[in-house]
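Lecture notes, unit on protein representations.

Consider one protein chain, 344 amino acids long.
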Amino acid sequence: MPDSSSDAARGAPHGPVLSVVVPMYNEEEALPIMAHRLRAVLDGMGERYEVVAVDDGSVDRTAELVHELRADWPELRMVRLQRNSGHQAALLAGLMRADGQYVVSIDADLQDPPEVIPEMLRRARNEALDVVYGVRADRSTDTAFKRGTAAAYYRLMRRLAGRHVPAQAGDFRLLSRAAVETLRALPERTPVLRIVVPWLGFASGEVSYLRGERAAGETKYPLSRMVRLAADSVTSFSAAPLRLPTWLGLGTMALSTVLVGYAVAGYLSGRTVAGWASLFAAVLFFGAVQLLCLGLLGEYVGRIYTALQGRPAYLVAEDSADRDPAPRRAPQRPAPAQRSAVSS
């Protein structure tokens, strides 16, 4: 994995119980709203916690606003990446640097509500779960196109990677320290976490919630990035596309046999055929098949090339925890009666 800077004491009993990783890219409009709601939830839980805000090379005031919030919120950490590395890389950077016994990842747009986090932690503790997925019970706030493409993506992933991939579960999840350390030990540099985490096989559960509207700003996941995510999910976890040329070749051979038989029958019957149209169509067809096969092979060769380069998925420019003069204080705990009400 790309980050080896974390010390061996991560997840120790004296450290935070809960880490919340929030990848951000140009979220200056949503960040104040997100911080207000998230802090209210975490302070009310009565647990030692930290919030790891990962700035993925934002070009607006996102990083500046995080530093301003840290002045009054000591549990907030700032991890700033050297450049924009993508949502999955930013999420991975936060997971690798989080110190908590449990680590929750959540986006900054508030479509995944932070109010679900206490229920995730409760289920993980009471049922001895290492992974708790946030599952979207209702996506009515998304466009019909987004709902359709998301449903197609999850159907494809469950078909390729297995039924262990939960439907309608994005990157809003809770991981135990054991699950995080297992992720750290994987040699894969750019894993698609929503596919890799279920593959690990840890005991898991689900918490359903209603997906809300974006708090502010515009989506940072346009169609091009969704297509890229789908391509990365398929090529990083399944060799099925490599078998596609084989089936195309078999189908082409069968079709060619029929066409040859037709041509021979026409020749024996004395019929003359100009031939240029059929020849033109055949050249186009076989050329398209060959290009498709080369493209699929090139996708995998490209991944091999990237892996051999050994470049990290992200570069950390700053981690506020590295220069804080004193350890982050624990939040004010509620009175015992209030704490028992919260835990129940």
